Amino acid sequence: MNLKIKFLAFTALIGLAACNQNKPKFSDEDGLAAFNADSLKLHVAELSHDSLQGRKPFTEGETKTIAYLQKQFKAAGLEPGNGDSYIQEVPMVNIQTTAAPDMQVSTSKGSFNLKGLEDYVIWTDKITDKVSFDKDEVVFAGYGVVAPEYNWNDYAGLDVKGKIVMVMVNDPGFAAGDSTLFKGKTMTYYGRWTYKFEEAARQGAKGCLIVHTTEGASYPFTVVQNNWNASKLRLDDRGKDNVYTDINGWLSLPAAKKLVAAAGQDSTNFFSQADKKGFKPLALDLKLSTSVTVKTIFNKSHNVIGKITGSKRPDEVIIYTSHWDHLGIGKADETADSIYNGAFDNASGTAGLIELARAFKSMKVQPERTIILLAVTAEEQGLWGSAYYAQNPVYPTAKTVANINIDGLNQFEKTKDIIIVGEGQSDLEEYLKEAAEKAGRVIAFENHPEAGYYYRSDHFNFAKVGVPALYTSNGIDVIGKEAGYGEKQDAEYTEKHYHRPSDEFDAATWSFEGGIDDLKLFFQVGKRLAFEEKMVQWKDGSEFKAIREKK
Q1: Closest to 405 in 3D by CA, of 451, 356, 439, 441
Q2: Distance between CA atoms of 475 and 481, rounded to whole angstroms?
């Protein structure tokens, strides 16, 4: 071979090597054919069937649900995700409360009663036999917020030990309509009811009552009423230093105004004073008395975990989550139906995990990073299954590339858009945008950021430990429908079906065409991540960025 031929051969090899290096490791189409709307509907129907009794943890419904998920994970070809098991045990306590039927209100001018369920809903998170208010003083503590980064402290100079704090739902920016307060219309974590109870306990309060408004909470008082004398679950934290108030609860807005008026205050503008910087808490001429008896049962619920081991970087994982639980059997509706089936919330998302598993397993090229499908328990009770996983991770959080959470899949028509919940959090937004554009779709951001949805599903527990987390909601730009149609559908679900027995699978109208489209986007995001080497980053300004950087 002469020198010229050798040179040409050499350059050809170099060119071939370069082409191989630039050649995509996977195709966009690989795995997409596995998605099937009929399969998805079948799983939703099974998971929301009456025989599962609303999928509440600690019930026969849980036993049947986790058995079904294990069977489907195995059928899809997933490996056990927790050693040789598909199960992660979650130690919990079931707290069954029975509240007295009324609450006695004493003022310097007389006394009267509020009616339980109608005027207020209360419970306790304490492991004890009985808790009570016994003519305990009431302090209006604004929004019950201590937020140094916003230069805001509703408890400044206030001693609430042994007292009951009455606080507003959401946070000051929302109620005031002031973009300079907190994040304006967008709820922060300080606006969530969970935070308010936690902060009241840290301050030493005996009780915390949140004033409900439908706009501030983003759901009607009927949703709150589902908690009346219901059993509540939380993690079993015996031996730890967690603190709780004696009694937590909600006041209806009319009941709260009645209390304010009884205390000699002008209820018309009373609550708005908490929206202003420099707000000072106000002791009210009120003393409250009532009691709650308690029965506790310690038990273990279960997360279900399946995996596809990565071919090159198996220690780096992408976690898809969806909560399998719902509310079980509770207060009957006007049709005498008492089973809270949770078909949309969240049999649909859990069924989506099964479809994602089938899609990843069908790929011609094995993902280089490990794919985890994690169905978590007790979301409805306080995001407890994902909280336990985040505190006791099977796969180290420092090696967890991202979390993609599904809490409700579009059960209706295709949409042009898909909505990201929590704008400006992580680079996962760009990943989803790219996948959407390739599919001829667009991303949008939530129309009602005041609802605080970024803090209301399981991805939040991953974010709290620094894992970039993506959470979406259904699009509202429905293809072939007039403007406003999709938002009307969304509002109708919230008003008529959210956390009600009527959230049932409807074979006649639930097409899941939109849900399949959304699943394909989640799949494309995870697939891209599975073949990359870099880690996903939080955006500047995200409250979770510093946590990640410490890992």
Answers
A1: 356
A2: 13
- 120: tokens are 């207020």
| Lookup result for tokens 């009602």 | 448
Do the beta carbons of residue 154 and residue 142 sit within 8 Å? Answer: yes
Structure tokens, 283: 């002791």
pLDDT of residue 161: 97
Residues 6+ apart with CB under 8 A from 33: 362
Residue type, 112: F
* Of the candidates 322, 346, 355, the residue with the CA atom closest to the CA atom of residue 459: 322
Q: Is the peptide bond before 346 cis (omega within 30 degrees of 0)?
A: yes
- CA end-to-end distance (rounded Å), the chain: 57
User: In whole angstroms, what is the distance from residue 203 CA to residue 245 CA?
Assistant: 9
> Which alpha helices (DSSP H) does 439-481 contain, by range?
459-464
What residue has token string 């009241």? 200
CA–CA–CA angle 78, 84, 89 (5° rounding): 95
- By the 8 A CB rule, do 498 and 434 touch? no
User: Tokens for 548?
Assistant: 């990640």
332, 122, 248, 132: which is closest to 114 by C-alpha? 122
| pTM for this prediction | 0.83
CB 474 within 8 A of CB 315: no
Indicate the helix (H) or strand (E) that contains 262: helix 253-262
Both structure tokens of 464? 């709290």
- Paired tokens of 126: 């304490």
**For the segment 509-538, what is each residue's pLDDT rounded down to a tens digit?**
999 999 999 999 999 999 999 999 999 999
Domains, in order of start, for the chain: 28-93+300-549 (3.40.630.10), 95-296 (3.50.30.30)
Q: What is the mean pLDDT of the chain?
A: 93
Residue whose structure tokens are 């509310």: 327
DSSP letters for 208-255 = EEEEP-HHHHSS-HHHHHTTTT-EEEEE--TTS-----SEEEEE-HHH
Query: 165, 239 in Cβ contact below 8 A?
Result: no
User: Are 196 and 144 within 8 A, CB to CB?
Assistant: yes
| Tokens, residue 180 | 């300079």
* Model pLDDT for residues 15-37, shown as the tens digit of each residue: 544 444 455 687 999 999 999 99
Name the 3-class secondary structure at 392: coil
pLDDT for 183-212, tens place per residue? 888 888 899 999 999 999 999 999 999 999
What type of residue is 138? V
Residue 263 has pLDDT above 70, yes or no: yes
Place of tokens 């959210």: 498
DSSP secondary structure code for residue 535 in this structure? P
Provide DSSP, 413-456: S-BSEEEESSTTSBTHHHHHHHHHHHTT-EEEE-S-GGG-GGGS
Per-residue pLDDT at 34: 98
